[in-house]
Write a structure and sequence with these properties.
Elements: H1 7-20, E1 31-35, H2 41-51, E2 58-61, H3 76-86, E3 94-97, H4 103-116, E4 123-127, H5 133-143, E5 148-152, H6 158-165, H7 168-184, H8 198-209
Parallel strand pairs: 1-2, 1-4, 2-3, 4-5
Helix pairs in contact: 1-7, 1-8, 2-3, 4-5
């Protein structure tokens, strides 16, 4: 079913989109972690940043989920690796973590994998979907507090990302769902708390009331 999104709803969604992005300045780090998802753009951007010399080793982390099994039947990390290699990243600098089923596992299992290869980074670059930067940051600060975290995602405008996915309602639902997780996960010990501006919460409430709720917990 096609859903018509009003101008106000679009502005509300864009407000949440901007909040999810951390705005970190990219700089060289000791290692990168590409967080598995449905978005192959994570691996594309990881390849770009590797070629720019920002890190010497990258872990692609992620198993399968109901939303990615059809797209990445051999697992998110495996497909990310293959895509990065096709873009010129040497296989020798890629580690594959194929088990993680959530963001906390992405970080903790990648940390263990790096340590097993003699890499104990003081700084890491988390590469994620654009609207997952803040949640990945808050999660990493909780489960790996001593490491310096830099967040990155493909530098896409909201309109361009929606077009790349091809489903406006799904994207807005995902933005709303990730904001709920930013708010709720610290209560369960999964992440550190993040300040959420009042206008962002107002936008969130309006979108839920309007039915953008398929990705809520």
């Amino acid at each position: 079913m096609t859903v018509s999104i009003t101008g106000e709803q679009w502005r509300d969604a864009e407000s949440i989109w901007q909040y999810h992005q951390m705005g970190h300045e990219l700089r060289p780090v000791d290692a990168a972690i590409g967080l598995g998802s449905h978005d192959l753009g994570v691996a594309t951007f990881a390849a770009e940043l590797y070629h720019a010399g920002l890190f010497p080793v990258v872990v692609f982390s992620g198993g399968n989920s109901p939303t990615t099994a059809a797209r990445f039947p051999r697992g998110e990390a495996v497909h990310y690796r293959e895509h990065a290699i096709s873009l010129g990243v040497p296989d020798s600098v890629i580690l594959v973590e194929p088990e993680a089923g959530n963001t906390g596992q992405n970080v903790t299992l990648s940390r263990s994998l790096l340590a097993g290869h003699g890499c104990r980074p003081r700084s890491v670059l988390l590469i994620s979907k654009p609207y997952m930067e803040r949640r990945s940051f808050a999660t990493c600060r909780k489960v790996w507090p001593e490491v310096e975290v830099v967040c990155a995602s493909e530098p896409l405008e909201f309109d361009d990302y929606v077009r790349s996915i091809g489903d406006e309602k799904l994207v807005v639902d995902m933005l709303v769902g990730d904001l709920q997780r930013v708010v709720e996960y610290p209560k369960h010990g999964f992440a550190v708390e993040q300040d959420v501006p009042g206008d962002v919460m107002d936008a969130y409430d309006r979108l839920i009331e309007a039915g953008f709720d398929s990705r809520l917990l």
